[in-house]
Design a protein that fits this description.
mainly alpha, 8 helices
Length: about 220
């Protein structure tokens, strides 16, 4: 469904709970956004780019504007996250967690009080921040929510792990995809039961994630 982490299996054990919680929250947010915006995402920018392109062809300017706002917000969130990682010092993780919670909470408030079209581009900034939450300087080549990369990596591990000591490593990578999918399923149920107000559950998950172990602790 969306762009999920390729690197979680390689994380330190203390970071895995954090990575998986963030993945589930990202999947949850993406599902709620997809339902609230009738098929547009806050984490899957490949999908939004395709929708943006076809919207130009068919003159669907309202949809184009929403997609553009989400892509810009997501990109801005990634920039902000990397700025914090590079210059935030020892407290970078705590600053980033606080910023992520603040942006998603603000977006949730605007989504519920004003409209999803106004609030979810703000949530996309938080989604971009989630993607950089476990980045290490410049060694991250794909975002935390890059599901396509996860499946590509799992396939690579499955083939190249045959007759080696890493024969089952691919299952751990697939598990990260499954966590994102479960988060999306939870988001679907949440939206089905309580509508856009279900977005607040993701905010709670991000607050919980802020207290989970990180390598800087």
């Amino acid at each position: 469904m969306s762009d999920t982490a390729a690197a979680t299996p390689g994380r330190a054990p203390s970071e895995r709970a954090l990575a998986l919680t963030l993945l589930a929250a990202a999947g949850y947010l993406d599902a709620v956004a997809f339902l609230a915006l009738s098929g547009i995402f806050v984490a899957f920018m490949s999908g939004n780019t395709t929708i943006l392109g076809q919207s130009i062809a068919y003159g669907h300017w309202h949809t184009l504007a929403i997609c553009a706002a989400l892509i810009i917000g997501f990109f801005a969130g990634n920039i902000l996250g990397n700025v914090i990682t590079r210059w935030g010092g020892p407290r970078a993780h705590h600053i980033q967690s606080s910023a992520t919670i603040a942006w998603v909470a603000l977006g949730a408030l605007l989504t519920v009080v004003v409209s999803p079209e106004i609030g979810l581009p703000v949530v996309a900034i938080g989604s971009g921040l989630i993607n950089t939450a476990l980045s290490r300087s410049t060694d991250v080549h794909v975002g935390l929510t890059y599901v396509t990369g996860t499946l590509v990596k799992a396939a690579h591990q499955l083939v190249y792990g045959i007759r080696t000591d890493d024969a089952w490593q691919w299952t751990t990578t697939v598990a990260t995809w499954l966590v994102f999918a479960c988060g999306a399923m939870a988001g679907g149920f949440g939206y089905r039961w309580i509508g856009v107000s279900s977005i607040w559950i993701a905010v709670v998950a991000l607050v919980i994630a802020a207290f989970l172990p990180h390598r800087s602790d």
